[in-house]
Amino acid sequence: MNKIEAEKGISTKPKTDKEVLLDIQNLKTYYPVKGGFLKRTVGNVKAVDDISFTINKGETLGLVGESGCGKSTTGRTILRLLKPTEGKIIFEGKDITTISGTRLRKARQDFQMVFQDPYASLNPTQSVGEIISEPLKNYKSMSKKDIKDEVMDLLSRVGLPPEAYHKYGHEFSGGQRQRIGIARALALKPKLIIADEPVSALDVSVQSQVLNLLKELQDEFKLTYLFIAHDLSVVKHMSDRIGVMYLGNLVEIATNDSLYAEPLHPYTQALISAIPEPNPKKRKKRIILQGDVPSPQNPPSGCPFHTRCPMAKEECSKVKPILKEVKPGHHVACILY
Amino acid sequence: MARSNTGQSETPLLEIKELQTGFKIGKNYYNAVEKVSFNVDRRKIVGIVGESGCGKSVMSLSVMQLLPQGIGKIRGGEIKFEGRNIEKLSEREMNKIRGKEISMIFQEPMTALNPVFTIGYQLEEVLLNHENISKKEARLKSVALLKSVGIPRPEKIVDEYPHQLSGGMRQRVMISMAIACQPKLLIADEPTTALDVTVQAQILELLKDIQEVNDMSIIMITHDLGVVSEICDEVIVMYAGKIVERADVEVLFEDPKHPYTQLLMGAIPTMDERKEKLATIEGLVPSIQNMPQVGCRFANRCPKAMPECVTITPQLFEDDPNHEVACLLYENSNTIKKPLERVVE
């Protein structure tokens, strides 16, 4: 991969400052399961079960995994939209895990979210102008005129016409609505944007427009992204580093090139092998996993993947492997390494 | 595996000629599928790709005659199944074909299955309707069918309800139902779109196996070019209700001719090369009411559009053997074999 890039003269993103923006330590988010007459908590869905990673300033960390692996819960917990059960979220050196009230409100200026469903994430009773100016009204003491100028500026920046200001969400196509969502996220000039499946509801030609836009904005505003998606080729296109999640656990995290050139965890290997390539000459023998993802309410003992792993050994069901660095910058949680 | 009808193997299994399907908006009908013609040969997997609203699902619903009543209507053209016209059959006659000769699987298996009946009941219903067998035999056959699509513990699952199964399992149940009477044609409308990649790989593998074992043809409707390249023999690319290109799968991916196909391929991020910028298609598909009556429907978004693109309607024609395209860049190819643009260079 490096060679191809060198030949094409494409440089991977310059990473001059390796300053850590976000540091996630042993994060756990459990959803209680209520049952019985008294609605007591009878168990937990371990949506995120002890994950740790960091995101450096200006980079894009991709999070991939299948439905129910906890990638969205991770994103929402970082934004403090969900209460973490355990662990620490450290943003720019400040622990934001337990802050609340005004301090949380203030901190939230720095991290914004772009949602998956552009149809559900825009208030149908508000005009586009109102939607985008909402964060400015809430956080900035600006005059009405300044706010309007700022919104116009944002609209043009994300490629929407000025007329959009007075229109409503339903008047736009999916791709344009996603642009509105991006403009809203950008309004406060955040440092971190968490994009949760931002293109999975869009057609491919529109998907490419939104992906290109996100990349341009990243360069322009020096943004840091946590890019959550289930589509490995999209994640590969967008990310500098990628984390692979399975059943609430981070099973592998590595740089983009390293992960795709040499996936180490059997799950990552299967996931990469399962992607249908748009090239009929490369129909390959796939690693077909048997069965489905087990329920996170009752995860398997030991390694969460051992029930479907083609290389599982006996001890896999007993010991839960921890994430360790096997190559520089390439971490994997598997006893094979 | 020889079928009794292999004698007529020269006639394609399904022939669609100049099909026009319209929807009623207000008082007028507007065509969502406009003069589409193509064939599906026996034992072939034909992929139909295009973005939302290109008419790919409407076409499959026309073949099945499952268009919404009173709104959707076949307004012209022919659909021939094994040489027999089926577009004007009565509901009763069509019922004999649906599920037996042609069957269909849908994108969202949860909404396609009935939540209040057991899997077994729904499978037996198909068998009892189309085949002359007893209830007991139907049940045994249901279990065997579930087993054939790779469902573990089929004798248990048969008594379970759809909500007790995962997405991948439900899609397997749908497939078992669709193949229950060994249809000659299976229409799969985005069968893996709602599934995760590892499950998608399982289902695609299963469809390929079943196609071989049952000797049937599949029409695979999808927006995912990866899925197409994975299992199809032939590909049809649709845009705004029309076919813009048709070719064998390897030919199409090797040498996409229509600008729309080229852009569509450039727009997807791929695993083996890192594109700094993805291709995009500016603008929007014209709405069904404002479809241009003459000229190419892609002209307003096409980066290679020429003045005549809005005045001359391009027809689908064979530019290379087995490679059809509807684009003026390639017209008059008897004299000029290359696209005009390349000649100019």
UniProtKB/TrEMBL annotation, chain A:
Keyword terms, alphabetized: ATP-binding, Nucleotide-binding, Transport
CDD domains: ABC_NikE_OppD_transporters
InterPro entries in alphabetical order: AAA+_ATPase (IPR003593), ABC_transp_ATP-bind (IPR050319), ABC_transporter-like_ATP-bd (IPR003439), ABC_transporter-like_CS (IPR017871), Oligopep_ABC_C (IPR013563), P-loop_NTPase (IPR027417)
Residue span(s) of domain ABC transporter: 22-272
Gene3D superfamilies per the UniProt record, alphabetical: P-loop containing nucleotide triphosphate hydrolases
Pfam families associated with the record: ABC_tran, oligo_HPY
GO biological process, one term: transmembrane transport
GO molecular-function term, one example from the UniProt record: ATP binding
SMART domains, alphabetized: AAA (SM00382)
Similarity remark: Belongs to the ABC transporter superfamily.
Protein name stated in the entry: Peptide ABC transporter substrate-binding protein
Organism of derivation: Jeotgalibacillus proteolyticus
TrEMBL record, chain B:
GO biological process: one example: peptide transport
Cellular compartments per GO CC: plasma membrane
InterPro entries: AAA+_ATPase, ABC_Ni/Peptide_Import, ABC_transporter-like_ATP-bd, ABC_transporter-like_CS, Oligopep_ABC_C, P-loop_NTPase
GO molecular function, one term: ATP binding
Domain ABC transporter, chain residue ranges per copy: 14-265
Keywords: ATP-binding, Cell membrane, Membrane, Nucleotide-binding, Transport
Source taxon at top rank: Bacteria
Protein localization: Cell membrane
Membrane topology: Peripheral membrane protein
Pfam family, one: oligo_HPY
Entry's family note: Belongs to the ABC transporter superfamily.
Protein name: Peptide ABC transporter ATP-binding protein
